[in-house]
Amino acid sequence: MSFLTQKVAQEIDDLLMNKMGYSVYSLMELAGLSCANAVYRILSEKKIEKGRVLVVSGPGNCGGDGLVAARHLHHFGCLVEVVYPKRPNKELFQNLIKQITGLEISLLDTMPEVGKVDSDYDYILDGIFGFSFNSKEGKIRSPFDKILDTLSKTSTPVASIDIPSGWDVEEGDILKTNLQPETLISLTAPKLCAKNFKGKYHFLGGRFLPESLCKKYEINLPKYKDTEQIIRL
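That's the NAD(P)H-hydrate epimerase sequence above. Prediction below.
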């Protein structure tokens, strides 16, 4: 199976949007749906009905994926709350917020304390940082440094969107966040850091990669089955 560098992942996104007619929103919708499917499947395997899910969204597109996933999880019957401390003013994100609040999903400004997270939620979806994260800055900015500390300490299982937040896209946890998610949901194709993932569940989602780009970048991936939006790797 192929693993993408940060540069190739960015190039593929640019080609999808600038050459192949995809909008940021359409990619986000498909990615978020994949993430919701993965979390719901895990909850079902664990025989957890009406699972209590905390979605933690960052200010970028990965955070948007989390907001979309929260909406779908709500419609799947889960009890969802969203931590969204940094909210962009762009129309795309404002519309995602309207969709969330229109469903009466709680939007929290701050991350609950570890003890409350342990007791109040069955699963956490980590959508803080995606493959554009720059670990070379050497630190994680506030308030996400404290949020990641909570995620690393909670007993509630975590599913990370595309990469575990705070990890270097290619080298893994070089900033020593100590975040070790139970689940990784790779989008489009796994990034190089996924080779360092030791959790229980690894899914592939984002079912939108054209064959032409697979050939261009020599990407080898398993085939999706029927109407499935995710593949368990």
